[in-house]
């Protein structure tokens, strides 16, 4: 349990740092920073950073999908256990059993059933730890699901931001070419005007 606790602390700290990095990435791809430092430099940097964070967020999203799937099994198991405990108090003398083989905890060859007739099952149903654990597993599942939704949303935002920065880079190149052509046309026009003026004089 102590190792698991430190793993949770490490994951929380890592995602806090990752959130700060995403915030910094958002600052470096905004128009204010581009106006301050120049369009082409920041759009090139922003494009590379956005592509990196898209890949990283996609990997984290797949990892959190696995965490969500992993936390859904205890919620399902504890819900069935809680239902059996509730039904055992309603129906007196009923022998209700929970087969652990259906959850993949034990192999098919082993027959491990937890039944309401045993004294340990009655103590477990009456304990506060069962309800507390059930609610903690629900909170863990909800948190993992919220993390997946947040990463899918942020992945969409990052993809749109990357496309915007890429288009801004192309637009900058187009504007540079257009300004060069206009300058060349202006130079040609002024040269011809000077030649006509010289010929007239």
TrEMBL record:
It is found in: Cell projection, Dendritic spine; Membrane. The gene is Gpm6a. The lineage of its organism: Eukaryota, Metazoa, Chordata, Craniata, Vertebrata. The keyword Translocase does not apply. Interacts with OPRM1. Interacts with palmitoyltransferase ZDHHC17/HIP14; the interaction leads to palmitoylation of GPM6A. InterPro entries: Myelin_PLP, Myelin_PLP_CS. Coiled coil: none annotated. It is a multi-pass membrane protein. This is Neuronal membrane glycoprotein M6-a.
């Amino acid at each position: 349990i102590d190792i698991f606790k430190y793993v949770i602390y490490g994951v929380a700290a890592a995602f806090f740092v990752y959130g700060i990095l995403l915030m910094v990435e958002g600052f470096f791809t905004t128009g204010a920073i581009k106006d301050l430092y120049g369009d082409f430099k920041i759009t090139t940097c922003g494009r590379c950073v956005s592509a990196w964070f898209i890949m990283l967020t996609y990997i984290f999203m797949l990892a959190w999908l696995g965490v969500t799937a992993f936390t859904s099994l205890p919620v399902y198991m504890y819900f069935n256990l809680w239902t059996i405990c509730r039904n055992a108090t309603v129906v007196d003398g009923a022998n209700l059993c929970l087969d652990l083989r259906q959850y993949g905890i034990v192999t098919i060859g082993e027959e491990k059933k937890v039944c309401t007739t045993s004294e340990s099952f009655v103590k477990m149903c009456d304990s506060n730890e069962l309800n507390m654990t059930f609610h903690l597993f629900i909170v863990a599942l909800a948190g993992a699901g919220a993390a997946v939704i947040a990463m899918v949303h942020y992945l969409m935002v990052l993809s749109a931001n990357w496309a915007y920065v890429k288009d801004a880079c192309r637009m900058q190149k187009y504007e540079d070419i257009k300004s060069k052509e206009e300058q060349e046309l202006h130079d040609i026009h002024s040269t011809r005007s000077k030649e006509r003026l010289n010929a007239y004089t």
